[in-house]
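Researcher: Please predict.
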Amino acid sequence: MYCRGVLPALAERAFADALRAGPVPDAAVWELVECFDAAGEPWSAKANEALAYLETRHR
């Protein structure tokens, strides 16, 4: 159970750090989305945020 909470939290931090550094490659965003989705309902909002980021980049 501990790992389920830690991995998405680390992914959330990685996403925030990557956004601060500049454009994030699509493949990296998809990996984060998969991590958030695998973590279940509490992290679904983060998955949606990452998908929204991808959507705004490809407009």
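Model: The radius of gyration is 11 Å.
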